[in-house]
Amino acid sequence: MYKALLAGSERGVTLDDNVAAFSELGFAPRIAAQAVERDLTTTVMGKRIALPVILSPVGVQAVHPEAEVAAARAAEAHGTAIGLSSFASKPLGEVVAANPQTFFQLCWSGTRDEMSRSVEAARVAGVAGLILTLDWSFSHHRDWGSPRIPERLDWRAKAKLAPQVARRPCWLFDWIRSGSMPDLTVPNMATATSPKPTFFEAYARWMQAAPPTWDDVRWLRQQWVGPFMLKGVMRVDDARRAVDAGVSALSVSNHGGNNLDGTPASIRALPAVAEAVDGEVEVLLDGGIRRGSDVVKAIALGARAVMIGRAYLWGLSAAGQAGVENVLDILRDGIDSTLLGLGRSSVRELSREDVLVPDGFVRRLGVDG
Fold first, then answer.
1. pLDDT tens digits, residue range 342-361?
2. Which region holds residue 87: left if phi is over 0, alpha if psi is between -120 and 50, else beta?
């Protein structure tokens, strides 16, 4: 969670570029005849959402007692969807109950039989769709100041952390009131031999699994009859392979700067990827969204909607469901005011002519692949 909130891989070049790239894009505003009301609704993977912002799957949200359930309720209150990580702190069924528009994220871990069982668990839980995440193949991090995280919160770990907890009595009170204590297990990664593994146990199993091939992606897609997103596409050739594999949607993403450092910002790769798929599948953008105007820029450059990670995690850490709702309120208001300035009555009217893209901004990765 610390890495998801603050850190990035190695020097953080990609982490910084994800945010900074948006400031290089400008707007071409219109005056007079602006729409009195603006329509922020759109459709993603067959689900109508009230604003073009989805909560991206992020694991181990035990920074708050209600964790992913609080985030799911916030998204439901704002009429949008949530992506739930396989490494979530809360069981899949509880999150789906809080928000029926839950897309369950799978990481390729183990054998095809094990992946099939995960797909069946998602089907039984009634999720709205699947997200296969392939943009975190390893984790090379420098020391970002992350505190040591114990594998289990046994009595020894609690005693060692007690001085820090004592300095945060409100945080402790919230947990006491919830009737539980922070739990670093990941119930949705359970296996026959490990019914409730710790995050570190599940993570090690994932890292030791052979990376999937495009045949594996195509096979997994065939196991699921509903909407299916591939997350982590940055290259034009990979986008075309994703279309050939039969995905419903793809997310242009570099895992928030937590994978291969030096990868360009997601927004720089978006236009070329959107052009390559040419409407055959839906395109979303994940990475660097901090304000409503960023959302508008992404949609104007070809995204159907965006996925946010750090932004809502900050809200969750500070105030649980209310904090996530506040983040969504800020983004919604920013999208609305930007549409007003652009003279657009709907997010579906946005186009390339609404943004100023400097020469050399777009990165066309894999065009010769």
1. 999 999 999 999 999 999 99
2. alpha
